[in-house]
Amino acid sequence: MRRGSDAILHVDPAGDTEGMLVICTPLSQGIKRDIRVNLYHTGLKDRATVNSTVFVPYVQGHYLI
Description:
This protein is 0% helix and 25% strand. By secondary structure, the chain is an all-beta fold. It has one domain (1-65). Strands 1-2 form a two-stranded antiparallel ribbon. It has a two-stranded antiparallel sheet with strand order 3-4. The protein is elongated, with a radius of gyration of 14 Å. The mean pLDDT is 78.
């Protein structure tokens, strides 16, 4: 990942959801970028479904809901 964001990929090849990628940014505004994710350890080979959720901004110790 580039500067301005942090990510973690949780992997459970035996579970209903084989992998879950969470991306966080400490910035007060959203960012847009393309990323590549290596899904090798998820056991997925031919296909993966991607669902995205809009980030909830977190500014000065508070979520902006």
